[in-house]
Write a structure and sequence with these properties.
Number of helices: 1
Number of domains: 1
Number of strands: 6
Structural class: alpha+beta
CATH architecture: 2-Layer Sandwich
Order of helices and strands: HEEEEEE
Length: about 90
């Protein structure tokens, strides 16, 4: 379920810009970090990154619990934080 703060048209344009930045080599995308519960019932993943032009950092965090009883809850819950490094202004998505 989306919080409704992201418009699909602007998201597709942003994705195209991000892919072009990646193709130019103006991106830093470290490996994802995953932490599992000891019993392996669920995990949390953190995916940081940096894109230049305009310079911005991003952080995606997601929890995954495959055995979540549907349809009450989605098995994946997460958020994206975008920080424009020139202004240090953060926006949650």
């Amino acid at each position: 379920m989306s919080s409704g703060c992201c418009r699909w048209r602007s998201a597709s344009i942003s994705l195209a810009d991000a892919l072009a930045t990646l193709a130019r080599g103006d991106a830093v995308l470290p490996l994802r970090q995953m932490v599992w519960q000891p019993d392996k019932r669920g995990m949390i993943g953190v995916m940081p990154g940096y894109l230049g032009s305009p310079a911005r950092f991003g952080l995606k965090i997601v929890s995954i619990f495959p055995a979540t009883p549907a349809p009450a809850y989605d098995s994946h819950q997460g958020a994206v934080l975008i920080v424009r490094s020139a202004r240090s202004a953060a926006r949650w998505r």
